[in-house]
Design goal:
single chain, mainly alpha, Serine Threonine Protein Phosphatase 5, Tetratricopeptide repeat
């Protein structure tokens, strides 16, 4: 007990002897990211090149799409085109549809403006690859939705 009391007393004495100006002059250092900043064109080119790789496998396609979905952006149509080609190369039709749904979801409240533009830009690629949009398949409306009991 005496040891803890003396330790507390020493800390009080030490703090009272340190001048106040010296304590206030300490500025905390912030360790921030000072790496190179990537432009939008470089970002688009990087992801387009990632999806255009010939040796890409299903896991890597999912990883790239998951990374894109985790960012605060809507992918450029040329990235979506490259992703659709990658889905066709790994023969994963469901992944292509799911990515289109995710792109629509990423449009947020401006889905009426952005999503039709995306579909307009990627429609020739979708037709070439034989991929339908979620709206053409009917995934935009619930399949097993029941009528409201109050409307019967």
């Amino acid at each position: 007990m005496l040891r803890s009391a003396s330790g507390a007393f020493i800390n009080v004495v030490r703090k009272s002897l340190v001048p106040a100006s010296r304590v206030s002059s300490v500025i905390p250092a912030r360790w921030s990211h000072d790496g190179p900043v990537e432009s939008d064109e470089e970002f688009d080119a990087r992801y387009e090149a990632f999806f255009n790789r010939k040796d890409i496998d299903g896991w890597e396609v999912r990883k790239g799409m998951n990374d894109l979905c985790g960012m605060d952006l809507v992918p450029d149509p040329k990235i979506i085109k490259a992703a659709m080609h990658a889905c066709r190369r790994v023969n994963d039709y469901a992944l292509a549809i799911r990515f289109l749904e995710a792109c629509k979801d990423k449009c947020g409240p401006r889905v009426g403006e952005i999503y039709p533009y995306i579909i307009q830009e990627i429609k020739p690629t979708l037709t070439e690859l034989g991929i339908e949009t979620p709206e053409e398949i009917g995934y935009d409306k619930p399949e097993l939705a029941l009528k409201n009991v109050f409307d019967m």
